[in-house]
């Protein structure tokens, strides 16, 4: 018997209407236990635990004791107040200490508390605020204050 005679006898209508319906892999294989697997088309790359690094923050002392600074020079970049601002030294919002006047940097440590201060000794010497400078020129300033 040839294949053409088999196809003629069965007919297309019988093939479509009597199609077997399988509920699982066991029935489809005729009782054999087959496991259907779906294979990946590409091999997945393994994830690494390395490869992440933060940018350097460049913290630390930038101008050391005795060095000359001009206004705006950064003296110390720090997290928190490891060093506190002293005379003619300002502090930024990220606790960066910078010079307010031209002069030399001086570091000081308090004997009892251990707190570290950074000062700038001005090139022209210490300048009094204009209010206090006017008070010093009045001859009877001491009698007015008492």
From TrEMBL:
<protein>
    <submittedName>
        <fullName>Uncharacterized protein LOC105060920</fullName>
    </submittedName>
</protein>
<dbReference type="GO" id="GO:0003735">
    <property type="term" value="F:structural constituent of ribosome"/>
</dbReference>
<dbReference type="GO" id="GO:0005840">
    <property type="term" value="C:ribosome"/>
</dbReference>
<dbReference type="InterPro" id="IPR001684">
    <property type="entry name" value="Ribosomal_bL27"/>
</dbReference>
<dbReference type="Pfam" id="PF01016">
    <property type="entry name" value="Ribosomal_L27"/>
</dbReference>
<dbReference type="GO" id="GO:0006412">
    <property type="term" value="P:translation"/>
</dbReference>
<dbReference type="InterPro" id="IPR018261">
    <property type="entry name" value="Ribosomal_bL27_CS"/>
</dbReference>
């Amino acid at each position: 018997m040839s294949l053409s005679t088999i196809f003629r006898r069965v007919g297309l209508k019988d093939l479509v209407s009597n199609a077997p319906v399988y509920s699982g892999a066991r029935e489809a294989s005729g009782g054999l236990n087959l496991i259907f697997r779906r294979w990946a088309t590409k091999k997945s790359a393994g994830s690494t635990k390395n490869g992440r690094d933060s940018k350097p923050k460049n913290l630390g002392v930038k101008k050391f004791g005795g060095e000359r600074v001009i206004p705006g020079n950064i003296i110390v970049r720090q997290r928190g107040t490891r060093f506190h601002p002293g005379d003619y030294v300002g502090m930024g919002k990220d606790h960066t200490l910078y010079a307010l006047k031209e002069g030399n940097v001086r570091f000081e440590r308090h004997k009892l508390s251990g707190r570290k201060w950074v000062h700038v000794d001005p090139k022209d010497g210490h300048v009094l605020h204009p209010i206090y400078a006017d008070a010093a020129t009045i001859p009877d300033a001491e009698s007015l204050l008492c």
